Amino acid sequence: MTQAAQAQSRDRSVQIEQSPITDLDTTTSQPPPPRRDPIEVDPRPVRYRERERDPVRMGADAPSAHYFEATMGFVAGGRNHSDMTFESQNNVAPSLTEPFLNLPYNGTSIFGLRYDLRLILSYVRMTVGMDFPFTNFRTADTKATYAVDNMMRTVTVQSLRPYELRFGLGGELPVSYFAPFVDVLGTVHFVNTTLSVDDNNAEFKATGFGFSARAGCRIQAKPWFFVQLAGEVGIIGPTRWNADLSVGFSAGSHR
Description:
Elements: H1 3-18, H2 24-27, E1 65-79, E2 87-88, E3 108-121, E4 124-136, E5 144-148, E6 151-172, E7 178-197, E8 200-222, E9 225-236, E10 239-254
């Protein structure tokens, strides 16, 4: 072998030794990772949706509604106490009877407060309540002269204060948020009165009973709150008529 051939052979071996070894891992092309948008986190606290409350069930559901009511409000009306028997409480002019046939006993207006408790079971209403009415009359209009123990005396009505305890049975028929109702009321009347006989005060008391019919409508503003309007007419007894405006609260089961 000539020197030129040996030199070429050495150059080739050097090139082989110096040739770079390619890394398969680095030469293999890989797709870039997909671009993802950053996740935005709402800093506000998570609010869970509350379960909606059941609406006030009326109409077809009313027969299965059992609950209590408590009402308070105002009452206005007319009274006639002339048919009641008044008894003397302090033995002053105990034989006095004629004034009780005249004003204000034979007809007066009343204004006052009314309270009711009621249980309703499938259309049926059971009521117990108390009225605190105040009579409206002028004392000067009651001044008159009467015979007392065979002597003429000047008699003036100083006060007339009734109290009324009521019991009722009735029914109602709810339609949407309105509940028309009708009640038959039995009322125990307690009446206290004071008359001036010349310079002495004579105190009398009477107790009686009467029936009346009431009709009205309850407006259910909330499941637990309502407004009530009613009118009443007397059937027998001291009550001539009544009208009342009340608000009330109910509690119980609306199945």
